[in-house]
Automatic annotation (TrEMBL):
Histidine kinase domain mapped to chain residues: 248-458
Lineage per the UniProt record: Bacteria, Pseudomonadati, Pseudomonadota, Alphaproteobacteria, Rhodobacterales
Enzymatic class: transferase
Transmembrane residue ranges: 6-30, 158-181
InterPro entries, A to Z: HATPase_C_sf (IPR036890), HATPase_dom (IPR003594), His_kinase_dom (IPR005467), HisK_dim/P_dom (IPR003661), HisK_dim/P_sf (IPR036097), Sig_transdc_His_kin-like_C (IPR004358)
PROSITE patterns: HIS_KIN
Gene3D superfamilies according to UniProt: 1.10.287.130, Histidine kinase-like ATPase, C-terminal domain
Protein name per the record: histidine kinase
CDD domains tied to this protein: HATPase (cd00075)
EC number: 2.7.13.3
Catalytic activity: ATP + protein L-histidine = ADP + protein N-phospho-L-histidine
Positions in coiled-coil regions: 215-242
Amino acid sequence: MLNSLSGRFLILTVAFVMLAEVLIFVPSIARFRQDFLQNRLERAQIASLALLADDMLATDLETELLENAGVYNVVLRRDEVRQLMLSSPIPGQIGQSYDLRQASPWILMRDALLRFFMSENEVIRVIGEPVKEAGLLIEVTMDSQPLRMAMIDYGARILLLSLVISIITAFFLFLAVRAILVRPIRGVVDYMQRYARAPEDVRGIITPNSGVTELREAEEALQMLQRQLTQALRQRERLAQLGGAVAKVSHDLRNILTSAQLFTDRIETSEDPLVRRMAPKLVNSITRAVSLCESTLAFGRAEEPSPMLTMVRLHMVAEDVVASERLALGEGAIEIVNEVPETLSARADPEQLFRVVMNLVRNARQALEATGQAGLVAVSGHETEADWVIEVRDTGPGLPLKARENLFTPFQGGVRKGGSGLGLAISAELVRGHGGALVLKDSGPSGTAFEIRLPKGGETF
C-alpha cells in the first residue's frame, strides 16, 4: 500500500501538515507565553485592588491574594510613584526580567524557546501595562516552572491536534486520490493488459472517459496507439501470409525455370541462325528470373541470426571480397582494388561483414560493366573516435534518382534492370544488427560511394 500512488500521497500529506505545524509551533508557543504572563499581570492587578480599597489587610488575606494571582509580590506605578502593593518572601534571586510592553515578535519567540527548553525553576520578573489605564506599569515576580509546564502542555495539545488533523486530511486526500487518479490509472493499466493479451481484439482498445484533462489526453494517445498497432499487426499478418504464398510460388517457379535453363543449353547448339541469335537473350532472361526467385526465398527465410562480434582485420575481409570479384571480371578495363590499411581492425561478425562488402562491390562492378567502359572499384577504411568506417566507391555513372529514393527498400531499390533491390536491404539489415548504419555517401556522374559505419561504443545509430 505504501508503494502505491495513494499511499505515498497519504504519507506526504501527513508529513507536510506536520511540517506546517512545526513552522507555526514557535509563534504559537510565544503567543501562549505572552498571554500566560499577561494573565498573571491582570490577576495581580485585581489582587492589588483589595489593598486600594482597604489600606490595611490581614497577612493571611494578602498571602491568599498572592497565591491566587500566582506571584510573590506586586508593584504598581501610579503618578510616577512606584508602590509595592502586595508582597511575600521571595525564595531566591531574580534570574530573568521580561518587559512585555515593547517586546518584538522575535524577542518573544526567542524568550519562549529558551524558557521551553530550560528545565530549572527560577524566579522571574515580569513588567507590563495595567489594564483600564490603572497606572503606568505593573510589575510582578513569580516562579518560571508553572509557565514552562503550561507551555509544554499547550505544545503537546497543539501537536496532538495537528496529528489528528493531518491524519483526517490525509485520509480524505487518500480517498480523493484513489477516486480521481488511482482508479482511472488502474483502468488504463487494465486496458493495456487486456490489449496485450489479445491485440487483435478491438474490444481491448480503450475508450477515453476520464474527466481529468491530463488522464484523458493519455487515454486518447493510448487509443490512437492501439488502433495504429492493431492495423499494423493486421497488415503484418497479411504480409506474412502473402510472403508465404510468394515463397511457395518462387520455389516452384525456380524449379520450373531451372528445367527451362537446361533446355536452353541444347537450344544454343541449334544450327538455326535465328535460334542461335535469340538463345543468349532467353538464357539471360531465365537467369535473371532464377536469381530473383533465389533472392526472394533468401529474404523470406527466418531473420538473420544475431552477429557474433569479434575483432576482425578489415584488410583481410576486403581482400577476400576483391579476390572473389576479380574472378568474375570479364574482358574490359575494370579494376578492383583494396585500399584498407592492413593494421585496421573492427568489432564485427566476419561472415556478415563479408556479405555486406561483397554485395556493395558486386553492385559497383556490375554497374561499371553495364556501361561498357573502363572504371575503378575501391574498398577503403579508416576509423574515427566513435566509429570504424569502410567505404566502397566506384567511378560509375551514379545512381538514378528513383533508385536513391527507395535504396534500402526491398523490391523497390533495385538499380540494375531486372534487379530486386534485396541485396542492399539485406546488407542494411546486417549492419543495423551491428548497431551501425549503411549510408549512401555520394552518387553522381563521377561515381558512387557507400559507407559502412560500425560504432566503437554501445550506442546505436
